[in-house]
Each structure stands twice: as structure tokens, then as C-alpha cells.
Amino acid sequence: MHPFAYVAPSTVEEAVAVLDEHGDRARPLAGGTDLLVKARANVWELDAVVDVKNIPELMNLEVGKNGLSIGAGVPCYQVYENDQVADEYPGIIDGTSIIGGIQIQSRAGLGGNLCNAAPSGDGIPALIAHSAVARIAGPNGTREVAVEEFCTGPSRTVIEPGELLVSIEVPKPAANSGAAYTRFIPRNEMDIAVAGVGVYVVLDNSGNNFESARIALASVGPIPILANEAGDSLSGKPVNDETIAAAAKLARNAASPITDMRGTIEQRKHLIEVLTDRMIKQAVERAKG
Ligand SMILES: Cc1cc2nc3c(=O)[nH]c(=O)nc-3n(C[C@H](O)[C@H](O)[C@H](O)COP(=O)(O)OP(=O)(O)OC[C@H]3O[C@@H](n4cnc5c(N)ncnc54)[C@H](O)[C@@H]3O)c2cc1C
After folding, report:
1. Containing domain of residue 143, as a range?
2. Pocket lined around ligand 1, Cβ cut-off 6 Å
3. Which of 130, 171, 186, 243 is the most exposed place for a label (fewest CB within 10 A)?
């Protein structure tokens, strides 16, 4: 492995300065559960690794009146052990609590999951379904990018050399809303998703009709997919098996998977339809309390 400097700044400005100095020969380090594997495999030749865990903004987890702010270095266990997050954002808990096992969850976080940009990233679909936004700092200031636009290809994101993900901002869930995420894996745990689905629904006050919905898919394209047509198809429709099945079919059509050692195109499309149907129903149940 190429030798590199380990830098542990305590402010966003210092981190950006180091990242900017080294360009694409430096990378931020959060939990390191992806970074160290790739560095050992010589995926990159790095001059510097910038540990973000001493930067207060990146370690901040806050449920405020406008929503949830998840610092880019906050480990998964802190997210799913937070009662307020569990109460208001159960879909995010679904994703966070299945990333690896307990050892991985004590280091790895949603920030690293997103920046790693694996199409199978379990943390990403629920964030997309919740209309989350990534807050990015760089040499020219800060900018915000919708999470569904953050990944640009496998292992590629909108983050430019010199930039750093600071936090993920998730809006406050609407009244009568619910969310859920699940994946299909051949084993019970510790495996890469063959297909995954995250759903967020808002019901009307009667609970009998959908007001809106967002559906996001994992592992069935080069990036996590926001299945717009599937989500929009539910708006104004009654909550019943027929409308849910029709949305699940549209989600299947939005998937563009490949065949690989973990699954075939046909199997993955089928899984998306089944999992979408289930997750809409689960999100509806949660919306009804
Ligand atoms: C045994 C094992 C099991 C796993 N199981 C799963 C699983 O079930 N589901 C799943 O989705 N993933 C899984 N993973 C992958 C990995 O654990 C997750 O993707 C995790 O969320 C990565 O988070 P991290 O904090 O460790 O990121 P890191 O490894 O620290 O970083 C990941 C990438 O993001 C970049 N990065 C980190 N922080 C920032 C930042 N603030 N700004 C810009 N770029 C940044 C890094 O430079 C690196 O390229 C597993 C990994 C292992 C080793």
C-alpha cells in the first residue's frame, strides 16, 4: 500500500484546506469501513487521509423542529439508538441498522455510505424517499445537493476534489406519513443487497387515500434510483391492494439491473415489484401509527 499522511483536523475549513491541497490524492475518512478496504486494494494512490471524526459539525446528530441533521461522520449505531430518530424516521432506522454487523455499525455511517456511492448502499434509498439533501463544503463555500442527485455512477459522486460532505439534512416528516426500507439478501444478514426498496408515503387525514409518495430503489442500476412515476402514481389514489400493486409494477419498470453473481435481471425486477408492494404497505401501517 502506498504510504499516506494521516490528518485529523478539528474544523471544516482545515479539512477543506488539506483536501484542496492534495486534490484527488486525498480522501476523507469517516468510519473507514469502505475506505480502508479500497486503500488496501490500491483502488487509489493516496497522499493524505483526512479523518473527519474530530470535526464537531460532522459528528452532530440533531432532531430539530425543521428536521433531522446527520453529521457525515456519525456512526450508524448513534442513529438507530436515538429514540427521536426511531420515532420520526423509522425508514432511516431500517436502512442504518442493517449495514454490516454491530462492529461495522459502530464505525460506519450514512455519510460514508452515501459518499461510497455503491448502488447497493442500504442507507441511501430511505434518504432519497425522505427528500434528504446533502450539505457539501468546499474551497468556494457550501452547497446543497438532493440525495437522489448525489451519486453519479458506481463509486462516483458530485463531490469534487477539495470538497467534503458535512451533513445530510432530512426534512421533518409530514403529518400522517410513514416510511420503510428493506432489501433482499440470500443470507439473513451481512450481505450485499440483491435489490432494495425505500418508501415514504403521506396519507390524507382519513388515512384512506395517498396524498403523495416517494419510492427509491437500490442495486438495480448504476446509482440508487428515484422511481418518480411509481411514487407519483399513488397521489390522490385510495389506499388499497390495487393501487399499491400498480405502483409496484411501475417501480419494476424503473429498475434497470444487470445480471451478475448475486442475481439475474429478471429476478431483480421481480424482487423490486414484491419489495415495493411490501414497503408501501409497511409505510402505510406506520403512517397510521
Ligand atoms: C464487513 C462489511 C459489511 C458491510 N455491510 C454493508 C451492508 O450491509 N450494507 C451497506 O450498504 N454497506 C455495507 N458495507 C460497506 C460500508 O460499511 C458502508 O458503505 C458504510 O456505510 C461506509 O461508511 P464509513 O463511515 O465506514 O465510510 P468510509 O469508509 O470512511 O468512507 C467511504 C467513502 O466515502 C468517502 N467519505 C467519507 N466521508 C466523507 C465525507 N465527509 N465527505 C466526502 N467523502 C467522504 C471516503 O473517502 C470513502 O471514499 C460493509 C462493509 C464491510 C467491511
Report:
1. 56-171
2. 27-35, 37, 52, 72, 98-100, 104, 107-109, 111-113, 115-116, 121-123, 159, 164-165, 190
3. 186
Distance CA 201, CA 209 (A): 10
pLDDT digits (tens, 9 = 90+) for 6-60: 999 999 999 999 999 999 999 999 999 999 999 999 999 999 999 999 999 999 9
**What 3-state class would DSSP assign to 276?**
helix
Q: Is 23 left (phi over 0), alpha (psi -120 to 50) or beta?
A: left
Whether 66 and 132 share a structural domain: yes
> Which CATH number belongs to the domain containing residue 143 in this structure?
3.30.465.10
Q: Where are the beta strands (DSSP E) in the chain?
A: 5-7, 26-29, 48-51, 61-63, 67-71, 133-138, 141-146, 151-153, 156-157, 164-171, 177-184, 195-203, 210-218, 225-226
pTM exceeding 0.90: yes
Instruction: Output the CA torsion sign for 9, 13, 19, 22.
Output: negative
Taking the CA of residue 166 as reference, the ligand 1 atom at the shortest distance is 41
Q: Are residues 223 and 242 in the same domain?
A: yes
Cα 35 to ligand 1 centre (Å): 7
Kindly report the CATH number assigned to the domain that includes residue 18: 3.30.43.10
Q: Residue 257 has what DSSP assignment?
A: -
Q: How far is the CA of 115 from the centre of ligand 1 (A)?
A: 7
